[in-house]
Amino acid sequence: MPMLRLLALTLLCLLACIGCASSGVTEAKQGDGPVYDVVVYGGTSAGIIAAVQAKKDSLSVAIVCPDTRLGGLTANGLGWTDSGRKHVIGGLARDFYTDMYAYYQNNAVWKHQTIDEFVAIPRATRTINHTTKTLWSFEPSAAKTIYERYLAEHAIPVFRDHWLDRDNGVTMDGRRITAITMLNGKAFRGRQFIDATYEGDLMAAAGVSYTTGRESNSTYGETLNGNQPGRKTHQFTKDVDPYVVPGDPTSGLLPHIQEGGTGEPGAGDHRLQAYNFRVCLTKVPENRVPFPKPEGYDPGQYELLLRALKAHGAYVFHKFDPAPNAKTDTNNHGPFSTDNIGMNYGYPDASYERRAEIVEAHRVYQQGYFYFLSNDPRVPAQVREQMSQWGLAKDEFVESGHWPTQLYIREARRMVSDFVITENHLKLSLPTPRSVGMGSYNMDSHNTRRYVDGQGFVRNEGDVQVRLKAPYPIDYAAIVPKRGECDNLLVPICVSASHIAFGSIRMEPVFMILGQSSAQAARLAIELGVAVQDVPYGVLRERLLAAGQVLEDIAQTSGATQRAQDPPRFTTCR
After folding, report:
1. 268-312, pLDDT tens digit by residue?
2. Which of 316, 330, 328 lies closest to 276, judged by CA?
3. What's the CA gap between 336 and 135, in Å, rounded?
4. Residue 45: which residues within 8 A CB-CB, separation 6 or more?
5. 3-state SS of the chain: helix, strand, coil percent to 5?
């Protein structure tokens, strides 16, 4: 019976395709503008991959986005790929990393280092695999080049610097979005829509259920959600005084410490894991720009950093992960680093203006952090002299003062659909029946706050890093809204997941995987004339597999050969 049902559905799809072709699938005119088969809102890696898949499926598609530089974090400094088990990364996501491998086979791109010099770096060696022809560490400019090539090769129209009118910009016909309108007044009409933003702005504006912050452990029967005091990673493991005048609570707290004590373990709250910029640094003199002193710089903001250095030593260089051409993907590490802990709580639902203020505060904080470490005479000489050798890469982000244009929004809104992914699904304790892709990275949250403990010392809270025993599937129902809310929207980034489960899902390769799956589900919904919630999974599964997607961990049943070929890579900070 299952096979007969699948054959019947396939025949129905073919008949629907004929109908679509006769009505003009590629672009149908209606009213005063084109009606696209798929409108992708968001220029992230997920958005680009979704658009490429739509074009490969002969659908008309447009990317509409606030971004001017496309590619999200992948093209904005996150070159040290948080991949987890690479063998479960397939489809167009895998193609991106094979294209990256091919890009660096060209000797002309090696301007400040040779490929042999790069792979000789012990930590860099494991980012390249000559058997699978994949490369997992790269420059921001390389990612930008490949993404722009995809857009040109597939003739995908992109409308940059277009900002959704979040109050009145979503036109609905019943439960279907018919058009989205930007603040500049331009409207985009479509049959299917994909929200590929880090914030979930289209999802929220369409009235789809979502949440922010951390659920309590009791909400979904978890153990790693909510308030997580006492964890040791990225922590003040030594006793550091939190007060302006050491030992005097009446003098007030130092900057970057929040009010409130330890709190109840596992309790839910509004807090988000911290954001930062993934900056690209170099020590090559002819390509190095000294760290700028940001306007509004205040050395007093880094008193706690001085105390952390005195207590913990020169920890600040640990996450200078190597990228080609003698560059880095530089990330947060340790008790006080590039994460601006506790300064992002209102970001997901904030106005564009308020978000811009939050982004600017993060830029000033992080630029000031590097300037302080490389210039302030109070910084230990060993640290100051070593940091002074580093600077921004002159040939990266030339359009934005060599600084990334995208803040790392590790977590914003998360959809609440009919299927919420929790840590129990990631541990394979609960079934996930309709896989549209796989994740495998740690359950991973950055710190959410900095407080004073019961003994009067400063501590960080919220950093969770728990490895998974095996890759896990991601259910189709987690990328579509609740039944009855919106019939033609797919959400490959702000998926339906608990805070701690999203901490694993939120990696760029997974977003690409889910972007591709979203596009193929959108095509099937068009062909059959059904809501995205009613897309027949059996047919979708066959199409995903045909497109190279990995929907189950074959390595678990086929021995260790594949795992040895692409071993898992975990880091201590993401």
Report:
1. 999 999 999 999 999 999 999 999 999 999 999 999 999 999 999
2. 330
3. 31
4. 71, 72, 73, 74, 75, 96, 147, 508, 511, 512, 515
5. 35, 20, 45
